[in-house]
Specification:
The complex is a heterotrimer of chains A (142), B (109) and C (282). With 142 residues, chain A is of the alpha+beta class. Chain A contains one helix and nine strands, in the order αβββββββββ. Chain C folds into two domains: 173 residues, Cytochrome Bc1 Complex, Chain D, domain 2, CATH 1.10.760.10; 86 residues, Orthogonal Bundle (Cytochrome Bc1 Complex, Chain D, domain 2). The chains are: A alpha+beta (142), B mainly beta (109), C alpha+beta (282).
Chain lengths: 142, 109, 282
């Protein structure tokens, strides 16, 4: 087979994908797990108890609006981005003076990935939710 | 003059016990430490706002730890159950130790 | 929490099988702080298009929402800086902008809508950046600001804001005509390795996707613009430069005669749209 540039590119991508992709995904999840365990003190969070609002598709990964909320008495909500170089994003801490247990911010997502919210709930248990945000590779112009 | 400017939106008046929304934004590049300088190829050192705290008459109301994945000009919105007349104080802590702050008085009414 | 509504709205649409790829409702009205801005308008007779549309129209729900509330618009951090600079003495004159111009809301109203504007002093059109630096060097005895500096971006945003809602209305006749023709020529000239001109994307293909990007008409009525991609405000000439780099052309310099002529021509293609400064784009 004669290699032209396009087929070479495809081969290179396939070769890289076969070795690098599963390993990278594993590394991401290990870091995510580590961050969650550090937050919960080793307790496995249960599904739910916290809601996460984020766009289905982000027009630019540099500024993605997100909102988290949970029930009364929730002490803290941690946000993670599973596909960023480091998964940590922000942790919101609430108090007795808090109104609704909710906070909004804007975050950076390096690529299409899951955003995760983990909450320390009022009864001392931990809740978790995750949601995929697609990041488009766009933004013409410098 | 510093180019880092904090902004806060808080109602001037509220009823005691009313839930009020507080919006905050500070102009800051949130340099992630992941970016390279195009001319030298060197990594630009991390320099972010790493902590935001809101307090009311000295008591902490809400606080946030921030990582480099928070966007430049960090925007944080949250709410407070208005405790009565007093002063909200907002503080943003930079990696270099600088603390940017702003105070807002809220009256009952 | 308006942002939440937009987010929920977008996901509801996606679930309903909306194939618009995150593209907002193109009929949406641009209402900023209670004031309705003109984001669609019939084109003047000479114009190659029938209807002029603000770049805001082409953005996703979430990006659109950021411009509707001056507090949520991250471009306003720079307005806070400019308000201080306006009142601060600079240069050998020891005078601030306010010392001569007074209240910016009155003195600067309408200026942005006319930019670039003919300078009798120089015998050429000046952009807002040129006018500001002339005032700094001639009147304040201060150093000129760099085109893309925090101070210049803040000041052009602040002065521009005083014209928000006013229709773009640049002079294209008289001494400006020659410059306008030059800008028009640049607009239709193919450049770069991709051999494209402005009109290929922004006249012939607005509304279409170029890879993951939703092409607009390339209007400049909202500049300086807060781009999510840049994470800060940027000038018209930075945008032109980025466009040229994308088509693998050697860009002209910020403040060059070429970009000033192009700014004039592109501004004229948005006649009647409201000034939106500082707008928010992707």
């Amino acid at each position: 087979m004669q290699l032209n540039r396009r087929s070479f590119g495809l081969l290179a991508a396939a070769a890289a994908g076969a070795t690098a992709l599963p390993r990278a995904a594993f590394a991401d999840e290990a870091l995510v797990k580590e961050a969650i365990m550090a937050f919960t003190g080793g307790v496995e969070p249960t599904e739910g108890g916290v809601t996460l609002g984020a766009p289905e598709i982000a027009e630019n990964g540099n500024t993605v609006p997100i909102e988290v909320s949970a029930g009364d008495g929730t002490e803290a909500i941690m946000i993670l981005a599973a596909g960023n170089p480091n998964p940590g994003v922000a942790t919101f801490h609430f108090t007795k003076l808090s109104g609704e247990i909710a906070a909004t911010t804007r975050i950076r997502l390096a690529k299409t990935q899951d955003v995760i919210a983990v909450a320390r709930l009022g009864d001392g248990s931990f809740g978790m939710t995750r949601r995929e945000v697609k990041v488009t590779i766009g933004g013409c112009g410098g | 003059m510093s180019n880092v400017k904090p902004r806060v939106k808080v109602p001037k008046k509220a009823e005691v016990g009313e839930i009020i929304t507080i919006k905050t934004l500070i102009s800051h590049p949130m340099e992630s430490g992941q970016r390279k300088d195009r001319s030298t190829g060197e990594l630009i050192p991390r320099k972010i706002i790493n902590r935001f705290t809101a307090s009311f008459n000295g008591e902490t109301v809400f606080w946030t730890e921030l990582e480099p994945a928070v966007s430049s000009n960090p925007y944080i919105e949250f709410s407070v159950k208005f405790p009565g007349e007093g002063t909200f104080r907002f503080e943003w802590v930079d990696d270099d130790g600088t603390v940017y702050d702003l105070e807002k008085d809220v009256k009952v009414g | 929490m308006r942002g939440t509504v937009a987010i929920l709205g977008a996901s509801a649409l996606a679930i309903a099988g909306f194939a618009g790829f995150g593209i907002a409702d193109e009929e949406a009205e641009l209402v900023v702080e209670g004031e309705t801005l003109v984001s669609r308008v019939a084109a003047p007779e000479w114009h190659p298009l029938d209807q002029l549309m603000s770049g805001w129209v082409f953005r996703s729900d979430e990006t659109q929402a950021l411009q509707l509330d001056d507090f949520e618009n991250p471009g306003f951090a720079a307005i806070t800086l400019a308000e201080e600079v306006w009142e601060t003495a600079a240069g050998t004159s020891g005078k601030s902008c306010a010392d001569c111009h007074g209240d910016a809301g009155e003195a600067m109203k309408g200026l942005r809508a006319q930019m670039p504007k003919w300078s009798e002093t120089a015998g050429e059109p000046w952009t807002l950046e040129d006018w500001i630096n002339w005032s700094r060097t001639e009147h304040q005895g201060a150093e000129a600001w760099k085109w893309e500096s925090d101070e210049m971006l803040a000041m052009t945003a602040f002065i521009g804001l005083q014209s928000r809602g006013m229709p773009v209305n640049v002079q294209i006749d008289g001494p400006m005509e020659e410059w306008w023709e030059r800008g028009k020529e640049l607009y239709y000239t193919r450049v770069g390795q991709l051999d494209l001109a402005c009109y290929h994307c922004h006249e012939g293909n607005y509304g279409n996707m170029i890879r993951a990007d939703h092409l607009s008409q390339g209007q400049v009525n909202g500049f300086p613009v807060y781009r999510l991609k840049w994470g800060k405000l940027g000038s018209i000439h930075r945008r032109f430069k980025g466009c040229m780099e994308n088509i693998r052309a050697v860009p002209y310099k910020r403040g060059s005669d070429e970009f000033t002529a192009l700014e004039l021509y592109v501004a004229s293609r948005g006649m009647g749209l409201s000034v939106e400064t500082p707008s928010v784009r992707n």
